[in-house]
Design brief:
single chain, alpha/beta, Rossmann fold, UDP N-Acetylglucosamine Acyltransferase, domain 1
């Protein structure tokens, strides 16, 4: 029998979470919840949507688990706040770990984690609570990803990297081995980080500029 699950949110990530949990996990989504001011429709994905103020009365923490399906908005602060609020109500927080991810760290993964397909998590990695790993990342051996961080797709985290709490790391970023990323850092898409990053740092890779030659003048394409 599957474990009943309530999901916080009614956005794109919530829809994805519903699909992933429903298709290949031991959880059965029974309802969604949002803050009262965001309660615009009574159903989402064919299931009831209730106010977060009422969720514990309608779907008891004694019988239901909880998942906060939010993005990195406000540098993960909103997801962290709702994670803590659900904990305060007495809920156990579920994690989704794709069966199509390669997980070799003996399950050292916290709660409310969202780990999608094609991630490679090498031995001796430690992943904290409320961490999102979108698809296709490499997390090198002996690395640490601390609570409330969000790692987008195709990021390379080399061995022995320590990523602080509430960081965001964008697509195709590369972190060299044995460096420390301070808390609340933003590492932009395509950035190459070769040394320690101080807390609250912003690191943006160079964007590709448009060529002065228009596409119509290219030969062989």
């Amino acid at each position: 029998m599957k474990n009943p699950l309530v999901i916080f949110g009614t956005g794109d990530i919530s829809q994805l979470a519903h699909l992933y949990f429903s298709s290949d996990s031991n959880y059965a989504v029974t309802a969604f919840t949002v803050d009262a001011s965001y309660l615009k429709a009574p159903e989402f994905c064919g299931l009831p949507v209730v106010s977060f103020d009422d969720v514990a009365k309608l779907y008891s923490p004694d019988t239901h688990q909880f998942f906060v399906a939010l993005s990195y908005s406000k540098l993960n602060r909103l997801r962290k706040e709702k994670y803590q609020a659900a904990k305060a109500l007495g809920y156990r927080l579920a994690s989704y770990i794709s069966p199509r991810a390669t997980v070799l760290n003996d399950g050292k993964i916290g709660d409310n984690c969202f780990i999608l397909e094609d991630n490679t998590i090498q031995p001796f990695v430690s992943i904290g609570n409320n961490v999102t790993l979108w698809s296709g990342n490499h997390i090198g051996h002996h690395s640490i990803i601390r609570d409330h961080s969000f790692i987008a797709s195709h990021v390379v985290v080399s061995g022995g990297v320590d990523i602080g709490e509430s960081c965001f790391i964008g697509v195709n970023a590369t972190l060299r081995d044995h460096i420390k990323i301070g808390e609340r850092c933003v590492i932009g898409a395509g950035a190459l980080i070769l040394g320690d990053a101080e807390p609250e740092g912003v690191y943006l890779g160079p964007a590709t500029e448009r060529s002065k030659v228009p596409s119509g003048r290219l030969r062989g394409i």
